[in-house]
Design goal:
two-stranded antiparallel sheet; two-stranded parallel sheet; 4 strands; about 100 residues; Cas12f1-like_TNB; Cas12f1-like TNB domain-containing protein; DNA binding; single chain; alpha+beta; elongated
Length: about 100
């Protein structure tokens, strides 16, 4: 099953293909859900592409424009925010994706 997932992500094996995999390590899962077999998926992907582990913890907490810490939010439902330091208006997911690059 994991080989099938890896083949869907990287249909043609090629070492020049780069795949980033988050280093999620919460043993209890997210919101009481089971943790997916990330190590197994990363291993299968590494047979088809170059895999790099990414620490995604601060990706939505640092401003990509000025690198300042963003204000803490009480809820994960906040999708947009304005950085008080540089006054940039960000989509939370876009900011996180840019921080991964």
């Amino acid at each position: 099953a994991l080989g099938y997932v890896a083949a869907r992500v990287v249909p043609v094996p090629d070492d020049s293909t780069l795949v980033g995999v988050g280093e999620f390590s919460n043993p209890r899962g997210l919101r009481s859900n089971a943790v997916p077999p990330l190590k197994g998926i990363a291993k299968e992907l590494s047979r088809r592409a170059t895999v790099r582990l990414i620490d995604e913890y601060f990706t939505s907490k640092k401003c990509i424009a000025c690198h300042s810490d963003l204000a803490e939010t009480e809820s994960q439902n906040v999708l947009h925010y304005t950085n008080s330091t540089c006054r940039m208006y960000w989509d939370r997911d876009e900011n996180a994706a840019r921080n991964l690059m």
